[in-house]
């Protein structure tokens, strides 16, 4: 695919996702996830997963980042990077957004939004967000 992000922006987004991973609160799963998004106005938002003793109340890293952006008035996401893996080291594998997060991201995704899953700044995969949630249910579906 032809990316709307240049290499410098990709590297910055991945670095910010890895940095956000250090803010994860995951005392139950010990699976630390970081997400960073680039809003349409060029600003960045970061988030980590926030677990809860009542497991279902856990908030994923992607949604933490999205909610921070939206609560700051940013409603269009140009790109997002996600990095997740067990604590104690760098991510061993790519961590893809869960179904709930894909639905939440879709609400605010730019048409050509890029989603990157990264193990490191040198090892990552890049998708168009709409490839990860085809035929999604959105605002246009309820008009
Ligand atoms: N998690 C995320 O932060 N993002 C995802 O897309 C999938 C899962 C978190 C939730 C939980 O704290 C931990 O990973 C294990 O499921």
List the helices and strands and how they pair.
Blueprint (H helix, E strand, L loop, with lengths): L6 H15 L9 E9 L4 E5 L12 H11 L5 E10 L12 H10 E12 L2 E6 H4 L11
Parallel strand pairs: 3-4
Antiparallel strand pairs: 1-2, 1-3, 4-5
The structure holds tetrahydrodeoxyuridine (THU).
Tetrahydrodeoxyuridine binds next to strand 1 and helix 2.
Describe the structure.
- The chain is an alpha+beta fold.
- Helices cover 28% and strands 29% of the residues.
- It is built from 4 helices and 5 strands.
- Strands 2-1-3-4-5 form a 5-stranded mixed sheet.
- Strand 1 (31-39) and strand 2 form a beta hairpin.
- The longest helix has 15 residues, at 7-21.
- The radius of gyration is 14 Å and the shape is globular.
- The termini are far apart.
- The structure holds tetrahydrodeoxyuridine (THU).
- The site of tetrahydrodeoxyuridine has 13 residues, from strand 1 and helix 2.
Proportion of helical residues: 25-40%
DSSP strand count: 5
**Broad structural category:** alpha+beta
Rg, alpha carbons: 14 Å
Low-pLDDT stretches:
none
- Name the quaternary structure: single chain
Mean pLDDT: 96
Estimated share of beta-strand residues:
25-35%
Cofactors and ligands: tetrahydrodeoxyuridine
The SSE order reads HEEHEHEEH
Q: Give, in spatial order, the strands making up the sheet with the most strands.
A: 2-1-3-4-5
What is the straight-line distance between the termini? Answer: 31 Å
Name the overall outline.
globular
Biggest sheet statistics = 5 strands, mixed
Number of helices: 4
């Amino acid at each position: 695919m032809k990316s709307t992000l240049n290499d410098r922006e990709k590297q910055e987004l991945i670095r910010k996702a890895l940095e956000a991973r250090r803010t994860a609160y995951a005392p139950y799963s010990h699976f630390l996830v970081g997400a960073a998004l680039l809003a349409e106005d060029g600003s960045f938002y970061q988030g980590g997963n926030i677990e809860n003793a009542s497991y279902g109340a856990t908030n994923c890293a992607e949604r933490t980042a999205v909610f921070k952006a939206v609560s700051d008035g940013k409603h269009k996401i140009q790109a997002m990077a996600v990095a997740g893996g067990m604590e104690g080291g760098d991510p061993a594998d790519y961590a893809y957004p869960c179904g709930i997060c894909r639905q939440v991201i879709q609400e605010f995704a730019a048409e050509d939004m890029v989603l990157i899953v990264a193990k490191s700044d040198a090892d990552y995969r890049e998708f168009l967000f709409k490839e990860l949630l085809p035929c999604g249910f959105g605002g246009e579906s309820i008009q």
